[in-house]
What we know:
The protein is of the alpha/beta class and 390 residues long. The protein has 17 helices and nine strands. The chain is globular, with a radius of gyration of 20 Å.
Amino acid sequence: MRTIGIIAEYNPFHNGHAYHVKEAMRQTGSRFCIAAMSGSFVQRGEPAFFDKFLRARLALESGISLVLELPTVFVLSSAEQFACGGVKLLSGFIDTLAFGTEAADMAELTAAGCCDGNIKEALHEGLSCGKSYPRAMGDALLKMGMDKSMLSRPNNILAVEYIKAVKRFSPSMDVLAIDRIGSGHDSVSPVDDIASASFIRQLILREGASAASPYLPYDMNGLNVKPWNSQSLLLLLKYRLLMQDGKPLFDMGEVSEGFENVLMREIRSAESYEDFLTSIKTKRFTLARLRRMCMCVLLGIDKELQSSAYAFDKPPYLRVLGVRRDTLELLLRLKNSGIPIITSRADVKKITDETAKKLWALDEYAYMLRNMLCGGACGGDEFARKFLIV
């Protein structure tokens, strides 16, 4: 049976996501949909708003067949490595990678994704001049005679990276773009019953969980949602920066050499996490890049670990967060891959690769840290709950 794959955050899963899943399955005639989902942190460089197990359950109840966790090291990376990690995770298990776009021409997205060599050279030139990644990428496309405005929206940037990653790591995989409907990415207002995830998060913070129900394919009443505390995050980051020892700060992931001095200078007087981010903002780095930089420091993700993770041809392991009862046959497909599958503590002990062990330890640490930032007890156990089957 045909299977589609989606690389997602689902932070939270909303009506727009439900439309995307349904439309992608309709267009491809697929029976199954596997999601590679970020875990305790998200690519914008923050702890996830909803617990990863809650997000997985809601996605399964809303049409996803099986949810795999994208390792933290890929989540807290650039759009390019986020896409590469997701494509590698899904490769061999899906026929088509489906992603959302914002009214972009698929031919142009494909052209951008396939001009890898020329674009890479122009991109490097732009980055070396101090431009941010989105601006440098847009200018690189312009040099190739393409419309750089298509990269003015985050979904389209990711779309190009997905196409590049598929071409590089899984050329037999098809790609399918689904135009986003209703509210745009990070939109401050909904369109009918479609709202962006950022709008929904802010709505929940202001008015409570039940206020978001009109924009979600499930009822929020009774769901235990505890947003993360930015002040607690600042205090932990302060401690980590001021007590940094061992590897130099510039060896940490996403930190450019020289920028560690900016971090150390501004963290001492920062009174809130938002003020700290404002104080270190530059034209070269987007806020998302700066937040990922801070989270890499906090979680101890260094460039050596990133490089080792990126070098894997296949996923280091498959962390299954949950599966639908009527699609349990997908688990057999995973088991036949020869890649270690993690659904219990006993499975962790079977991991033999040293880098894979470090990446798994990072995922567990990320889970515990997010739990603390949301007011939970220190040391929450990944496997305290039964394996999720809905």
